[in-house]
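Entries read sequence, tokenised fold; example below:

***
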Amino acid sequence: MKEQYHRWHSPNLNLDMEMLVFGDRGYPVLLFPTTKGSYYQNKDHGLIDSVRWFIDEGLVKIYCPSTIDDITWYDKGIHPADRARRYAWYDKMLLEELAPWAMHETGVNKVAVAGCSFGGYHAANFAFKHPEKVGHLFTMGGAFDIKMFTDGFYDDNIFYNNPVDYLPGSDNWALWQMNIILGTSDWDICKEYNVTLSNILNSKNINHWLDIRPNAKHDWPIWKAMFPHYLSTIK
């Protein structure tokens, strides 16, 4: 399995970003880490190994970027407006830097986005804000309501980075073209977030799969079982 390390300076963030990339061809998948996780977290916890076959067969090329959770939603030392503003810059980085990079390298005109736990938020937010850029969305134990991090404060950056707020009013045609899988489990602490998001999608007649697995907790073992199943749906 080919593995590459990349470091670049993001003009949107004015920060150096790091990323691991697995594979040399195939459908591009942006795979986000969990809360405050590093760019190598998904490798270290075995999620990459769980889909090694897809990578080795050239079906997918997986991009694992770092996030800036510690200076956005989880930074209690700054005002919620600043947390949201910084996150809007991160979204701009994904849209203008990382997604085009992945599409150019693979020759595919859309990306898939995926993530476990808080990584599911990053994936869902990018997919629902920019559905014309996303062919597939896979979340595993995701949470999707960012208002838990905003201390009661609310502004446009919070609204437009909170899927449960902006999605009900979105009429972007590409939402109805996306392959969407919301993975959760009976004992998942984030199960209700998935049910709520599924209800929003149902209200808009957006086809998706709410995959509720039995007898499993919010943890890596069930996510490693889900991820290869979900990648198998990429056409």
Observations:
- The beta strands are 3-10, 15-22, 27-32, 60-65, 111-116, 134-140, 179-187, 209-217.
